[in-house]
Structure formats: structure tokens, C-alpha cells
């Protein structure tokens, strides 16, 4: 059993080198789609593996999250990044109840060890400290990703963030109650 160290990252911590041993690989076989108001699991297969360009874009996004007052947390196995999660700082929703969990990713060799669950818990605590009532997640629609969120108690969002839906129309819009 490895000892994972969880810590909040500063802008200076977030660079391309941080992801040198990180493997965002996923062999997707099935994805959820909403058809006629019902969720259906469909045979949609592809391999997702981030390129250097995607990591460079990710670095800019995560740095921006911190610059805008959000938070990024890393999970480290020794000096290697095992996983990360980010929380945005913009409240939204009809009652200003939501803060967005903008990313949570676990390196392929670290999945199934509780790293994602712990990062999710850390993000929830941070969102509660900031006064959020709910966490909002625009989540990958793959069967495995949705099973992860369902196991944590996430449900379909009561309100959809239309900007996020437009950016990622195949994502599942989820929420998690913090109260």
C-alpha cells in the first residue's frame, strides 16, 4: 500500500513537468446518452490518451483556476502525480448554490486505490468552506466515470450550466449536495 500525499497546489507548482509521469489513458467501451428524456448506455468505443498539447492546455487552465481564486489539489505517490482535482471560484445557479468541480483525473496506474474518492472529498470540504451548497460536475459520459460519480452519491443536476453543456455536449451534468 503506497502512501499518497494530498496537497493544494500553487501556480508555481503547476507546469508541464508536473505531468511527466501522469497517464490520462482510458479505454472507453460504453457511454451514457440522454434520449427522449431517458439515460441510455450505448456502445460508443474510443481510447482517450492526452497529447502534449492537451497537457499544455491543461496547465494553462489549472493555473487560471488558481489565479481566479479557485483551488487545485494534487495527490502524490512520492514525487509522481497520482491524481489532481480543481474547484472553480465562480458561484452560479438560481440561488448561487453551485461551485464547479472542473476536473478530477487519476493516472491510469493509480485508479482503484481510493485516490479519486479522497480528492473528491477534499474538493467537497473546500467548496463547503467557501459557502457552496452543491458541487456541479460536467462529467465524462463513459460508463466507468459515471459509475465513479454515482458511487459517491452524485445525481443528475437539477439546473444545467448551459455554457458547460455547449462546450461538452456529451458530458453528463451532475451535482453533489454539500449540506
UniProtKB/TrEMBL annotation:
Residue ranges of every copy of the N-acetyltransferase domain listed in the record: 14-171
UniProt-listed InterPro entries: Acyl_CoA_acyltransferase (IPR016181), GNAT_dom (IPR000182)
PROSITE patterns from the UniProt entry: GNAT
A GO MF term: acyltransferase activity, transferring groups other than amino-acyl groups
Protein name (Swiss-Prot/TrEMBL): GCN5-related N-acetyltransferase
Keyword Transferase: yes
Keywords from the named record: Transferase
Keyword NAD attached: no
Amino acid at each position: 500500500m503506497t502512501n499518497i500525499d494530498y496537497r493544494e497546489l500553487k501556480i508555481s507548482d503547476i507546469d508541464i513537468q508536473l505531468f511527466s509521469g501522469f497517464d490520462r489513458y482510458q479505454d472507453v467501451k460504453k457511454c451514457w446518452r440522454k434520449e427522449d428524456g431517458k439515460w441510455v448506455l450505448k456502445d460508443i468505443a474510443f481510447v482517450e490518451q492526452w497529447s502534449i498539447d492537451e497537457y499544455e492546455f491543461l496547465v494553462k487552465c489549472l493555473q487560471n483556476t488558481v489565479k481566479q481564486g479557485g483551488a487545485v489539489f494534487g495527490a502524490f505517490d512520492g514525487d509522481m502525480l497520482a491524481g489532481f482535482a480543481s474547484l472553480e471560484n465562480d458561484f452560479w445557479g438560481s440561488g448561487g448554490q453551485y461551485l464547479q468541480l472542473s476536473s478530477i483525473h487519476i493516472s491510469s496506474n493509480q485508479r482503484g486505490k481510493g485516490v479519486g474518492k479522497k480528492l473528491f472529498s477534499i474538493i467537497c470540504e473546500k467548496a463547503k468552506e467557501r459557502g457552496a451548497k452543491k458541487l456541479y460536475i460536467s462529467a465524462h459520459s463513459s460508463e466507468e466515470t459515471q459509475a465513479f460519480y454515482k458511487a459517491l452519491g452524485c445525481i443528475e443536476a437539477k439546473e444545467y450550466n448551459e455554457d458547460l453543456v455547449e462546450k461538452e455536449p456529451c458530458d453528463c451534468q451532475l451535482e453533489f449536495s454539500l449540506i
